[in-house]
Design a protein that fits this description.
Number of domains: 2
Radius of gyration: 23 Å
Largest sheet: 9 strands, mixed
Number of helices: 13
């Protein structure tokens, strides 16, 4: 079976697309989603976060939540707000945020190739989050949150997406965060076949974001294929994905704030940092300009930090990451945070919020020190995935975010 294939998308009728489109389910908490849907009965948040339609305090993982999501999806279908294409398509998807633009494809990607690591991973998953996605997909009988994939840029694919994007779009809308979402149907059979065969000739694809969604798709396929002669070509053998070329992807910094100095005074802390980093006070907000350079905000003062060269491992795609260097040479030994996934003393701030958010968290007294990190590159991520290794936690922040509700993948 091919690496990717077209599918019959479930999507909003054109006149209601702007009413349906919503942020990804994991960008908003329940309270924020409740507020967001006021006056918006068609918002896809009623499907992706259906606890908002149940009494406050409802456990978002309760059985009635998944049931409510399925009811809400079915209502949009029966009310003809959502329609399903009568034949399989690919969909060109363009995101524009400010001056940044990236153009990719909505596809269904092979679970079998995910299982054999041809679709390569770079993160651990949590069983509880996998369980949530499995129950959601099972209840809806559809995948509504796309996995964010990337590939090494290919001129044939670029030529087709450029050609299609010169035509009249199916959807062209701007979300309330200012990001523009534009979608075109790839309807020409020759283009569809060329895309399928071109991707199938690739060595691999890479997961940028969506490890829990892809892992849950694999579990759904395994369960539904039990006791069957597995052909590998049922709808549940593929998962909803949006795939962009690597040369158009944008990764922002993913920064750290920490509650205390682990019993050290500020002077003691600065002295100990100098064992592993050069430290230079700067007169204004400072954003790291290159790999292995960091900035730190402490007691109203910004500092530029540069890790000492003899501490940078060679030929180790994980330990040489900037986030690994900061964690292994400063945060763990000096601040005592050995497990950033679980330690409540550390928090993470996406670069989309700017360095002013780091100042705010420290100046408020909530946190005592903040670190800004040079953004991880996509080539670093690919190197880690190619080595079958795992990225440090909270190391990539992709922008712009995909929308939910524009195209979903029904599993029948």
């Amino acid at each position: 079976m091919p690496l990717i294939q077209p599918f019959r998308g479930l999507r909003p009728v054109i006149e209601h697309a702007s009413d349906v489109v919503a942020p990804p389910y994991d960008v908003l908490n329940t309270a924020e989603a409740r507020e967001r849907v006021k006056g918006h009965p068609l918002s896809f948040l009623h499907i992706s976060k259906p606890e908002i339609d149940l009494p406050e305090g409802t456990d978002p993982y309760a059985a009635e939540v998944y049931k409510k999501g399925a009811e809400n999806l079915q209502k949009l279908v029966s009310d003809k707000i959502l329609m399903r294409d009568d034949k399989p398509y690919y969909y060109v998807y363009r995101l524009v945020m400010g001056e940044h633009q990236q153009t990719g494809l909505v596809v269904s990607a092979s679970v079998a190739d995910y299982d054999t690591n041809r679709i390569r991973k770079h993160e651990y998953t949590r069983p509880d989050k996998e369980d949530d996605r499995v129950r959601q997909i099972d209840a809806l009988n559809a995948q509504t949150g796309p996995v964010f994939l990337t590939y090494r840029n290919n001129k044939i694919i670029e030529s087709i997406t450029n050609k299609v994007s010169q035509t009249t779009p199916t959807y062209d809308l701007t979300a309330d965060d200012g990001v523009k979402h534009t979608i075109w149907l790839v309807s020409d059979d020759e283009d569809i076949n060329t895309l399928t065969t071109t991707f199938d000739a690739m060595e691999c694809l890479y997961i940028a974001d969506g490890h829990h969604r892809s892992a849950s798709a694999s579990r759904i396929a395994a369960e539904r294929n039990k006791g069957k002669d597995k052909s590998g070509n049922a709808a549940h053998d593929y998962f909803l994905s949006v795939i962009f070329p690597d040369n158009q992807m944008q990764i922002l910094d993913y920064n750290r704030v920490i509650k205390d100095l682990n019993g050290l005074s500020e002077d003691e802390f600065l002295t100990k940092i100098k064992n592993s980093f050069s430290v230079e006070a700067v007169s204004t907000v400072y954003k790291p300009q290159k790999r292995t350079e960091f900035s730190m905000y402490l007691k109203g003062q910004w500092y530029k930090l540069q890790v000492k060269s003899d501490l940078i491992p060679e030929n180790d795609p994980v330990a040489s990451q900037d986030i690994s260097l900061l964690q292994n040479d400063l945060i763990e030994p000096l601040l005592g945070v050995s497990d950033p996934r679980r330690d409540k003393r550390i928090d993470f701030v996406g670069g989309i919020r700017g360095l002013q958010e780091l100042e705010k968290r420290v100046n408020s007294g909530e946190m005592q020190v903040a670190f800004a990190i040079y953004p991880t590159s996509l080539s670093q991520l690919m190197d880690v995935a190619d080595a079958n290794e795992v990225m440090p936690p909270k190391s990539t922040w992709f922008e712009p975010k995909l929308a939910d509700g524009l195209v979903s993948h029904v599993l029948d």
